[in-house]
């Protein structure tokens, strides 16, 4: 795919035209485009107030339930693209980790900075980077528990 085609696809994603992705068969290209899409959003897919709740969750014993509740409370314009992303990663990328080396942990490291951002950069961002990756990995590892299985979506 040429740079022009990649940019055209990114523009379609920015218009939330996710069906456009069905024309592309290279999952690595799709993952790269999706990552660029989430990175270009003016407001991250996890709004800043949700980011703060995720980063400051000390004392919460059931992290999975905490993340699930925060995700389920997201507006639909955030919830559905997020669900699409994690479904794609679980169904189209993770099954090939033996060949691609893109484990859930590696995907979390790659995607967390695009999904979870602090509103104001600070020295805590290094700590947040690690914690953000752990949140993304938790979502990857528990996709069906968080979003439900296909019959219930």
Task: Describe what is shown at a glance.
The protein is an all-alpha fold. It contains nine helices and no strands. The model has no long low-confidence stretch (mean pLDDT 87).
Spans of at least 5 consecutive residues with low confidence: none
The backbone outline, from C-alpha atoms, is globular
Count of DSSP H/I helices: 9
Q: Helicity, in percent?
A: 55-70%
Total number of beta strands: 0
Radius of gyration: 15 Å
Average pLDDT, to the nearest integer?
A: 87
Strand content: under 5%
Would you mind describing this structure in some detail?
There is one protein chain. This protein has 153 residues and is mostly helical. It is 65% helix and 0% strand. The protein is built from nine helices and no strands. The chain has helices at residues 3-14, 27-40, 48-55, 63-72, 76-93, 97-100, 104-115, 125-141, 143-147. Helix 1 (3-14) packs across helix 2, helix 2 (27-40) runs antiparallel to helix 5 (76-93) and helix 2 runs parallel beside helix 7. The longest helix has 18 residues, at 76-93. The mean pLDDT is 87.
